[in-house]
Design brief:
With 537 residues, this protein is an alpha/beta fold. The chain has helices at 45-52, 67-70, 80-88, 107-121, 132-139, 143-159, 176-186, 191-198, 206-220, 239-251, 268-283, 294-303, 310-323, 341-350, 369-382, 422-430, 440-446, 454-463, 468-479, 485-516; strands at 55-56, 74-78, 94-99, 125-130, 168-171, 230-234, 255-260, 331-336, 355-357, 361-364, 392-396. The strands form 2 sheets. It has a 7-stranded mixed beta sheet, sandwiched between helices. The protein has a 4-stranded antiparallel beta sheet with strand order 7-8-10-9, covered by helices on one side. Strand 3 (94-99), helix 4 and strand 4 (125-130) form a beta-alpha-beta unit. The two termini are 22 Å apart. It binds tryptophan and iron/sulfur cluster (SF4). Iron/sulfur cluster is lined by residues 434-436, 448, 450, 453, 455-456, 474, 478, 483, 485, 488-489. The site of tryptophan has 15 residues, from strand 3, helix 9 and strand 6.
Amino acid sequence: MSEDTHPQTDGGTDTESSDNGDPDRTGGSDDVALDPWGSSTIDDYPKLFEQFGIEEFDESEVPNAHFLMRRGAIFGHREYDRVREAMANDEPFAALSGFMPTGDPHIGHKLVFDELIWHQQQGGEVYGLIADMEAHSARGMSWDDIDEHARSYLLSLLALGFDAEEGELYRQSDNRVLQDLAFEIGSTTNFSEFEAIYGFGGETNVSHMQSVVTQLADILYPQLDEPMPTVIPVGPDQDPHVRFARDAATRMRYFKVTEAFASFELNADERALFRALYDALAADDTVETDDLRCEDAAEHLQAFDADADEATRASLARKLENAGKEPIRPRVRFLDRNANEAAFDALAERISGEKRRYDAHIDTFDLSPEAADELAREVEIDHDGYGFHTPSSIYHRFMTGLTGGKMSSSIPASHISLLDDPEDGHDKVMSATTGGRTTAEEQRELGGEPDECPVYELYAYLLAEDDDELAARVYEECADGDRLCGGCKEQAATLMKEFLADHQEKREEAEAMLEELDIDLSSDRRGLGGEDEDEAV
Ligand code: TRP
Ligand code: SF4
């Protein structure tokens, strides 16, 4: 297959993005690269917050937080609050992730398996998929190899506790409903976006593009029967797909619900500023907000102390002045985005209380934004729309390779496959690099550097499992110089051996479950079987 080129993406789609919460999506020459098909190492996680608007993950608000959350392995998110709130309120929510079957599943994939299983245990509808279309079109894998690896991923996922009766497992190529959704999404996206987001160009193979639309469909698939908050647990290299799917979900909505204060439109920044001003005036006894007119508000704005940028202030002031004596009245506005006439009429009909209907929007005066949002979704669903919630995501750190550097399937000593012979797993841990000092003496004196140590990471992300006490003890003893690398590795190696032996036994038990599943693992397909490329984890 031809080599696609993937220059650094700047994270900026040129699509309507004002309401998906990404404040700064600016590009720049020293951007962190987020390339789904590149080599996934991230040197600077905090930079992802600034540059791409990924939010910092705060496990303290998550009930029953998973150990990967507690130990900082899950470091970032987009709007996970939606899912967390659904979870807390016993409302439906979903989780979905996908796996490219390019090799054996390894301990890096186990993080994602664990995340899916945990969300399932918290009551979510959980989906795991095999990205076989992507493996074939973007990595040139042969279908025979794909079949074999797909089987292996599914076995590990089941062995680790995925409940296939409660959740759903599928292959991209095998899922007709998914392909229909991909087709719909494809008709709302265009090639310029693929260029901007992924650096695709004239040489990119068309099936690769199809696999991207398919991934966008994967991300929205859990909402087909019933729209619900959905979390996509992935590595940060997948963030471009997440952002694109969030845009697609938004632009496919029939209505956009916003707050307004008068007849004219505000952008998000102006709206926030005006909301702050209005609240301040409402709290001020000397101002009668019921009688407030736009030109009065413009005057108040001059004296209003808020940390908004000058351009926003100036544009808001201009809009208020232009509106002159128009009274200010807070309202919730439904903007027509993709609604058909019947849906627009039905919406107007179903709004209770005072309302004003215009050509392409309806203003309402007695609805809360939440109630409006719900109504918009109901009407959309009643009129053949999807009514998608914007999907959320959580991001985990990539595991460090056992040899230092990145963990990669093409460097066997750098990773541990879930299929590795337990003895080999043991030996790989024993030969891992550490954050230890050159001599035992120095180690006792200065302490080791657990934050720089792949072996500590094994404890934290895998071996200690739910035992926080063990993870904390290894960390502290190491940092205090009370733990030496030889013994520390021996302990980790033994745990690894036990884990692998146990996991492989469970994989055998899972064979029967896999047979029960309605998944075709001997796809009778022809194609070009290329060579496996270097896959980062
Ligand atoms: N692109 C992902 C990978 O490279 C696999 C994938 C396909 C996926 N569809 C997905 C991940 C949907 C998350 C959600 O591993
Ligand atoms: Fe790593 Fe353990 Fe050595 Fe500390 S003592 S540096 S955690 S191997």
